[in-house]
User: Fold these one by one.
Assistant:
Number 1:
Amino acid sequence: MSLLPVDVNQTIENGWQRARLIPGFLHENEARFLGTLAACTPARGVIVEIGSFKGKSTVMLATVAARYNLGSVVAIDPHAGLSYLGTPTPHQDPTFDEFLASIKSSGVSEDVEIHRSFSRDVAKDWNRPIRLLWIDGDHSYRGCKEDFNLFSPFLAEGAVVAFHDSLNAFEGPIRVFVEEILRSDHFGPCGFVHSIAWSQFRPSDGVAFREARKKLERRAVRLLPFVANDATPTGFRRTAYKLNRSLVPRKHISSAQWVELLSPTVST
């Protein structure tokens, strides 16, 4: 079992105190969990963030990375407003200047490797192992699957993949999580925290977690018809979607619980 890094709870608290001041769509428990992923994932490699927006998650990740000498967080985003969410998303001005201001005011500028680009362009020359792949960019199925397909080949043994907004009525994150993660023996422990779907890359023993993944899949797969073809459920369908979503376990996971979840043995 991996040991908790020194003062991890205080480090995550520091990260949240910085991140909470930044506009964004990351809830507090999600931000804290993201900090846990960055600090406690037992894999070598870099932290890759696809979708930075104004820097809320970037600041949390970079605060943790700086404390534990994990290298710069690779932050990938074209900063073209919210256009990646598709129509009828309201127009929003580019976010790059606000992103730069966020990481500067938080004191983490030196701990972020900035790519003002689409992920597909960064992927063309990518050759580094990844310890944490945080996917929060294009929420369409096509876009989310592309992000996963481009960067998942570089996951290090024991790395973690996490998708934001998997339980927020977008097709991409939940569908990719079900089809590419929960149905694959390359992955082991898995779950949800608020709207974050996560799993650990365990190609050597992922088969041992098959039943646990199937159990979670039976809950998560019920959401797919409601968001098929990137549709947004409305009316009765929205009510039914929320009912099925309520059946998906998604409680917060502390750093100590996280370490236990990633134990080399399968929980009984």
Note: The mean pLDDT is 93.
Number 2:
Amino acid sequence: MMSETDSVHPTMRPLRAGALVLVATVALMPRPAAQSLPYALFERYVDALREEAGIPGLSAAIVQGRRLVWDAGLGRQDAERSVPARADTPYLIGDLTQTFAAVVLGQCVEHAGFSIAEPISRWSSDIPESGAQVRHVLAHTSAGTPGESYRYDLSRFAQLTPVADGCADRPFRRVVAEEIFDRFAMRDSLPGRDLTAIGSTAPAFFDDGKLRAYESVLTRLAVPYRVDRGGKATRADYPADGVTAATGLISTVRDLARFDIALDDDALIGRNLRTVAWTNVTTSGGAPLPRGLGWFVQTYNGEPLVWQFGAVRDAGSALMLKVPGRDITLILLANSDGLAPESLSNGDVTVSLFAKLFLRLFVS
């Protein structure tokens, strides 16, 4: 679980001096014309940030106007074999899984009459607060007096797994595979790495043909790396944990672009529910907290930002940053944890130099 301190992850510290100079240089540049967005410039600078962070491989995409306008693979998805990262390289997406869980629960609200005001105790005894509701867990506000404070906690969010299983009347990973991956042609996305467990959840759906297709995707999964303070990358192992509502899905930046477009097209959940999910929850006194339902929500230079990071310790990281008012989204996936400083869990995406670069070039 990510800590709640403001400290920067050790792998991020060595890049600060050079990378801050880079971002400062970009900040002094004239803002490009809106009709000629500087994708080549962004690619060059984001690759420089990748190298300074010691990230072996990174894939990136930008969606604008509900279409994929740019993508790239930078560095190596397998450094030992010198296999380049590509836009269709699969990665473990970590906490980005939460956005899929929010969609599944949103579909339950719209199509099955489910209420997120239901007490979480109906499905889990691992959250002791008697007043905690599903909506509090979705917003990471279930600890203490539910709804009155924010604490990012993956173990609590994972308790939404049986909620999703129950309201959809199918295992969470099967719902994601059927209603999102298959429906929107996310062919390089998987509901986890453990194929045996996947198959056992629904043998008729996850038949041998589908499992073979999944196995083919797994052969291209980015190799995970641990990066030390000096920027040296060492091959690591993925965690043995399976899929929960909090983490565990596998995807690519191109597939996540399809997910992003489906969200904006109201093809996953309706606009009214999406608006609620992308609005800060507030305390009983009206104070805004960092989360909506399944997403972080904040403002940058007057522009609302909706975003989520992913972190898999010593193995991978992710960032999905939406600027709804500009109809533009950044998607980044990496095979080390250098994209996700721990302080991101405090709710300010601008602590990420990658996010700051994107915002300067495309939003400021």
Note: The first strand starts at residue 57 and ends at 64.
Number 3:
Amino acid sequence: MSRLIAAEWFKLRKRMMTWVVALILLGLVVLLYSVLWSISGRVTRFGEHNQFSAEDLRRALFLQGSVPFALEIAGSFGTILAIILAAGAVGSEYSWGTIRLMATASSGRVQLLLAKLIVVFALAAIGVLLAVAVAVAYSAIITYANGGSDYSFITAGWFRDQFYSYARTLFVMAPYISLGFAAAALGRSTLAGVGAGIGVAFVEPLVGGLMRAGGSPWKDIPNYLINSNTNVIIVQNKVPAALPSFGPSARDLADQNVLSVEGAVIVLCVYIVVFIGLALFAYRRRDITASS
């Protein structure tokens, strides 16, 4: 496995697509920080009920809120980019015709696919860390330039909370990464993985909303879908209230009678295991010597 992981790491690290999706994520972090800082200088009151002032937004953009907001961006937009990376990692092997060579040169099909998946998850974790690093650097510039430098918030408890937030963000990305990876393996193409992963990420919230509005027996079905349970997990991250949220609030989730955090973890773990299991089962039994 170590040799397979090293080989997959070399391939994905050298691919242009890996660097493109990473640059897009980092660019989004810089863009959102720039837009919000610009808004804070032009708008006096904002928010659903005008409950926040421009000063509230500026303080939220300081160093204390940089990590949670970067993780919020990564958990929303970074998931889409991670789906593209995961689908391309396995789907491109079919389009390039290298799947036969890789399968015969490796010690086993299951080991080969697991090595790809491990590297994809590792790259996703690194990408989220880079997003956090860029957010901290940009926030530090904003903080120092506006006299907001105060390090009293840096405590052991703060570091612990940021680590838990980082782990939650990676966890909610995992089902979508696994889905894109599995769909690419089953469909033998990058397009199949990207289409399935992004399609579910965008369509599921819309369908779930219609089901909740439809009453019984439909209203409880979204509680067992991916999006609802990822929202339950990610809302545990402590993002400053003045910053925009890309998902429902804790109050909205409570009104929807969603599962508990423990229940959401179990449901998402089931999805991850099922998706990875389907990919391994299909790839192990497939005749890759035949033309696709």
Note: Strands lie at 45-46, 52-53.
